[in-house]
Amino acid sequence: MAEAGDRIEYTITYLAMDSRPAAPAPAPLNANLALVRAHEPPVGYFLYLYGTVGEAHEWTDWFDVSEAEQAAFVHDPQIALYTLLVDGWPGGFFVLDTRSTAKDGVCDLAYFGLMPQAVGRGLGHWFLSTAVHTAWDMPGVSRITVNTCTLDHAAALPLYQKVGFAPEHRQEASRVLVRARPG
Q1: Non-local CB neighbours of 51 within 8 Å, separated by 6+ positions
Q2: What local confidence, expressed as pLDDT, does residue 98 receive?
Q3: CB of 53 within 8 A of CB of 18?
Q4: Which residues does the chain have with pLDDT short of 50?
Q5: Structure pTM?
Q6: Is 91 exposed, middle or buried (0-12, 13-18, 19+ CB in 10 A)?
Q7: Do the beta carbons of residue 12 and residue 170 sit within 8 Å?
Q8: Helical segments of 55-123, H only
Q9: Residue 98 exposure: Cα atoms within 13 Å on the Cβ side
Q10: What's the DSSP call for residue 138?
C-alpha cells in the first residue's frame, strides 16, 4: 500500500480518434438519465465534479491553481462542461476542450468520469459514447484526443479503446500521493 506523501510512478497513455464512430449516438439507457451542458458554471461546481470523480484517482491539479486560472478555464467559451444526471443527482461529467479546434481540428476530452455512486451501474460505455458523439457534433472537429493514466479507474483505458480511441504514445511520470492507495 502506498501512503500519502509517497512518491509513486505511473504511466500516462495518450489516445486519439480520427473519425466519427460508425455506430449512431446511443439513446439514453432509461428515462431517469439526463445530460445537461453548464453555461458559465460556478468554479465551485466544476471543482465539486472534478474532486468527487477524481478523489480516488489523484485528480488534484485544479486545486493547486489560482481562482483566476480556474475561472478562466471554466468560463472559456471553448470549454464545454456536461453533467450526467442520474435520478436527479450528478452521476458524472465530461469536459470538451475545443480551444485548438480552429487551428488544428482537435477537440480534447479533457475530463471524463462517473461519480463513485454511479460506477457499476452500466453507464460507462453509454456515457463515453455520448461524450464522443457530442464532441464530433461540434463545428470544425476532425480529431478527438484524450489521455488516461494508471492512477485512473482500471477500466478507463480499455473503455476508451472500446469506443474507438487508439493509443498514440505513453509517458512515464511520478507524483507525490495526496492520499493512500491500495496495492
Answers
A1: 59, 63
A2: 96
A3: no
A4: none
A5: 0.93
A6: buried
A7: yes
A8: 67-75, 101-104
A9: 18
A10: S
Report the pLDDT value the prediction gives residue 2, as an integer from 0 to 100.
77
| Grid coordinates given for 19 | 473519425
Look at the chain and count its residues: 183
The rounded distance, in Å, linking the Cα atoms of 149 and 175 is: 12
pLDDT (tens digit per residue) in 112-134: 999 999 999 989 999 999 999 99
| Cα 61 from Cα 151, distance rounded (Å) | 14
Residue 96 CA to residue 112 CA, distance in Å, equals 9
Beta strands in 56-142 (DSSP E): 79-86, 89-97, 106-114
Phi/psi of residue 9, nearest 5 degrees? -95, 145
* Confidence (pLDDT) at 183: 62
Coil, helix or strand at residue 97: strand
